[in-house]
Write a structure and sequence with these properties.
Length: about 230
């Protein structure tokens, strides 16, 4: 495997992606497993890394899960796919193609994905109100981006699609964040607070979160010393 470099950063990154693709679509199991173990830190949102071409890498992981015959490789690819959102739809659609030893883990993820989509499971977040606050945070910078509201339908669509959906109180309609502007929010993880009435949504933000053009909606300081 040879990675060529040039003065153009885009070409450097593309060379890296080509090298990753070459290994993951190849036949050398040892190289595949070594690469997947290396990618673990870079794909894991909790480490704060934002590897270029993440989406393409997750697509490659899906191909590995469907086509590879090594249980160790497939198992690691399934674990990594967690960082790109719930893998249960791809697992459910291709369960018969997954090595037999990996099927218990695949069935677990399928079960968990379907469980969280269950209406009864979602109902517990809307016991006090039909709308609950959802705080969007950039998973890489840890900056609070915005606060919006979700109803059960928008939360369900968020879980189904992997991108944020909110309920617009002014327009009284569902709202897919960034669908018009292109400033999408890809969901990495969602946490409920201790009372199950507020959500914290860790996202990968494309562009700016605020309709004013600001990266975050929280840009007007009203108290405290100015930040340097």
């Amino acid at each position: 495997m040879y990675i060529s470099y040039s003065d153009n950063e885009e070409n450097i990154v593309k060379s890296g992606l080509d090298a990753i693709s070459e290994v993951l679509t190849g036949t050398d199991t040892e190289k595949k497993l070594s690469l997947l173990l290396c990618l673990d830190k870079y794909l894991d949102p909790w480490f704060g890394y934002d590897l270029p071409y993440r989406e393409q890498i997750f697509t490659l992981l899906e191909q590995v899960i469907i086509s590879d015959t090594s249980p160790d490789v497939v198992d690691e690819a399934i674990n990594l796919l967690q960082y790109g959102g719930g893998p249960w739809p791809i697992l459910k659609a291709n369960l018969d193609k997954i090595p037999e030893q990996c099927r218990p883990d695949a069935e677990y993820y399928i079960h968990e994905g379907e469980r969280i989509m269950n209406d009864t499971e979602l109902d517990k977040y809307f016991q006090k109100s039909d709308l609950i606050p959802a705080i969007a945070v950039d998973v890489n910078t840890k900056q609070v981006l915005m606060l919006a509201y979700m109803n059960k339908e928008s939360l369900k669509k968020t879980l189904e699609t992997g991108y944020t959906w909110y309920w617009s109180r002014s327009r009284q309609e569902l709202w897919n964040k960034g669908a018009t502007s292109g400033h999408l929010q890809k969901v990495v993880s969602i946490f409920a607070d201790c009372d199950n009435d507020t959500l914290l949504v860790n996202v990968e933000q494309t562009g700016n979160a605020c309709h004013t053009g600001s990266y975050s909606c929280f840009f007007r300081q009203i108290y405290g010393k100015p930040e340097v």
